[in-house]
Amino acid sequence: MYDMALNRMLPTSEFAEDQPLGHFILTAHVMHRALPIGAFISSAIPLASTFILRRATVYPITMLLLRSNSTGALVSLGVGGAMTLGRMWGREDIEWKDRSWRLLRNTGQTQLDDFSAAGLMVGALLGAAGRGSLPLWRGAVGGAGLGTLAGTVTFMVWKSTLGKKS
Length: 166
Hints:
Strand content: under 5%
Structural class: mainly alpha
Largest sheet: none
Keywords: Membrane, Transmembrane, Transmembrane helix
Radius of gyration: 18 Å
Order of helices and strands: HHHHH
Number of domains: 1
Distance between the termini: 10 Å
InterPro entries: DUF1757
Number of strands: 0
Number of helices: 5
Shape: elongated
Helix content: over 70%
């Protein structure tokens, strides 16, 4: 099976009913998957405003993207948590364990999570370094959101071209 970098840090069991940390794993997964969606939307707004509507900006586009994506990332995390809570409200513990166990055992999903997590780390570092006059947290969080989007897109390109052989 594919060597899952993120999943080596999470405990997995042989059977779904024995899966530890089911609530945490499922909630963290959904919140992590919500980040690239939020980054896409948060990037479209300043890009459309700048290039399509031709609004004059006093900030470089990188600062606009980092600022917009820092807000978008925080909103995405909240929406992801709320989505999980809404979907799983009143469900039995075994359902949480089963869904999290399936996520950890799904090779394609874990590959996507690894690409996205790598993008998150690189994006956070680059965002913090290139934030300009933005606060450090905005640069790091905005870069992390953009990084998850970049990691997701990279995975999709890799899977559609090179990944078919594996």
